[in-house]
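Readers of this paper often ask what the protein records in our data store actually look like. This encoding replaces a full spatial description with a residue-level series of whole-number codes. For reference, a complete record is included directly beneath this paragraph.
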Amino acid sequence: MTLIKSISGIRGTIGGKPLDNLTPIDAVKFAASYGTWLKNSKKGKKLKVVVGRDARISGPMIQQLVMNTLIGLGIDVIDLDLSTTPTVEVAVPMEEADGGIILTASHNPKQWNALKLLNEKGEFLSGEDGSEILEIAENADFTFADVDDLGTVQSVDHYIDTHIEEVLRLSLVDARKIAEAKFTVAVDGVNSTGGIAVPKLLRRLGVEVVELYCEPTGHFPHNPEPLKEHLHEICELVKNEGADLGIVVDPDVDRLAFISEDGEMFGEEYTLVACADYVLSKTSGNTVSNLSSSRALKDITEKHGGKYEASAVGEVNVVELMKRNSAVIGGEGNGGIIYPELHYGRDSLVGIALFLTFLAEKQMKMSELRKTYPSYFMSKNKIELTPELDVDEILRSVKEKFSKEEVSTIDGVKIDFPEYWVHLRKSNTEPIIRIYTEAKSQEKADKVAEEMITEIKEIANLS
């Protein structure tokens, strides 16, 4: 199976052998590495870490291993148990904790789990910090606490409610206006913690809720990535119930997708576009998304007089650029909304509240709102290369060939043409180049991708 180590954490499949999978030994080793890194960086301080998890089946086992490892290092634990990624991010600074661990494999299927690591701000670690943790893990350089210095566990069960209260306090969230709109909303919580948090938020906003898969059993009823091909049931439910819209989140509630009243996808890329349209209509400022996100955000930002910039792929990169450019909203085109007014992390609850306020203010149907935005279409492909080929050299050749166009090399090679763009990224684990294209029609996006694949094959002398 698979174990993937990165600067943002460790992710793998449950079962199998250590170092090949996410086994109990790997969970303990990586939790010990993170705890040791905290102790090294905050010498002499009594440390506290917030731990929360999504509802996947392996969660309780991994949670106990992680918490007891931290206790063994002399670190106190705030146990949120079932929670969401953004809820843990909100809780870390509220608890004045030194960090946080979220146990979730996000949109991956049930056999996966992961440890996602946060700093004292409740934000994902920098590349430098993540590299230090990986080095500690490699050397197994741990020193555990004496019996009189073991950490403690404090169970806290109010943070989803607290998170919702913080969302409701935002100046651009108008619960009264939403309640007056008398929305009916269908929710697919994929049997994880979104099934707890999203209906709670909606009911606080005065919305009538129709629940689908909102029991946090961890038995995902379909592929948990919120893509159109996985969401037939919620699309039918929206139409059959006469709902105003549908809401879908992934298992840890940091990705958000909407379904229009006609049962059609609003478009995962357009979650951020619509929320940004609303925020920018009330707050002057700039926006940020990653290089593989839709050009529609740039269009909307410039319409409001702001400046759009693109970061390398990865939430930590988006956040760093948002801070540098004082962005008032940002995120990723996969449905991740980052609204700094509350915190610097992808947050579906914030996205839902902002979007519903906007929809209530607009007094139009979802499908009508979607038509107000520029239409772009994406194609996502990959080309497999032989291991002996130099992927970096291939990307350099592509860059040189299209040097007369607008080219970015902060994350692979992205080429912006007047009517479309192409983004090439190499895999860190295998000889693959991922090819993302966007154009004003699906046919054009697919054609551009095919042409780029042919270009790469010619450069690499592949038949």
